[in-house]
Design brief:
Elements: H1 19-36, H2 38-57, H3 71-101, H4 104-109, H5 114-143, H6 150-175, H7 180-197, H8 209-216, H9 219-233, H10 238-258
Helix pairs in contact: 1-5, 2-3, 2-5, 3-5, 3-6, 3-7, 3-9, 6-9, 6-10, 9-10
Length: about 260
């Protein structure tokens, strides 16, 4: 007499990791990818640090240094603004553009991470890289004689995050609507223009009056002004913050509307 057949055990279905863990893993991957890439490292760290040394050791900012302060006091806020531009706009825009070209975005959007988790991971990675940039710029600035008010350092954090929100939206909008090669060319060109005459490293008042008001309405000019006001006068005025908020809202609305995942 044969034994009754035993029911086949159903193999357990693997469950996805919790959302927070998935986002953390994606954020770590995004941040390390940016910092390990030689071109990205040049853009994110080396060029801003070189700019800080150049602005501190030359007389390019002498006309903008208030009485009782030094060049480095004016240079550091501008370089931190450049870090946001390099990180949130150029760095993330280029990386997202090529991820889209090679089908990485389309693949990840169908995994348990999902589109929302992917975007959240990118945002967290930008903040993580910005922390690294802030620490490095602050350390080099301190070595050059920068002695900021601790309150100003705290106030600068939400200002930088607002700027990062605006530039991230613009970077994703560009990366999600044009070819990767065009994203690479445009982001690098915009980086150079905004760094030189976009109110990033140099106050807009150094430009001709016909251009100064226009630069103040750019996200680079608004963030540069807000950062300089934070460290030089104790806090940003309302206008540059409103300009940044408008840019952030418009950029993200456009990115949600027109971003293509493939």
């Amino acid at each position: 007499m044969t034994a009754p057949a035993q029911p086949r055990a159903t193999p357990p279905r693997p469950e996805p990791a919790p959302l927070a863990r998935r986002v953390a893993a994606q954020s770590r991957y995004e941040a390390l990818t940016m910092l390990r890439n030689g071109e990205q490292l040049l853009l994110l760290v080396i060029l801003p640090l070189m700019a800080l040394v150049a602005l501190t050791l030359t007389d390019l900012l002498d006309a903008d240094v208030p009485p009782g302060l030094s060049r480095v006091d004016v240079a550091v806020p501008g370089v931190l603004t450049l870090c946001v531009l390099s990180n949130a706009f150029s760095g993330q825009g280029i990386q997202t553009g090529f991820d889209r070209r090679y089908g990485v975005l389309r693949f990840l959007s169908t995994t348990p991470l999902g589109r929302g988790g992917l975007i959240t991971g990118k945002l967290v990675a930008i903040v993580a890289v910005l922390v690294v940039q802030y620490v490095l710029v602050g350390a080099l600035g301190a070595a050059l004689g920068w002695r900021p008010d601790p309150v100003a350092v705290l106030v600068s954090v939400p200002v930088l995050l607002l700027g990062a929100a605006a530039f991230t939206g613009l970077g994703l909008l560009l990366a999600g609507t044009v070819r990767a090669e065009a994203t690479l060319a445009v982001t690098n060109l915009v980086w150079v223009v905004l760094a030189a005459v976009g109110g990033t490293l140099f106050p807009s008042r150094t430009l001709p009056p016909a251009l100064s008001w226009l630069v103040d309405l750019l996200p680079s000019g608004a963030l540069g002004t807000a950062m300089r006001e934070t460290f030089l006068t104790g806090g940003p005025s309302l206008l540059p913050l409103l300009v940044l908020a408008v840019w952030a809202a418009a950029a993200w609305a456009a990115a949600v509307r027109w971003f293509r995942w493939s």
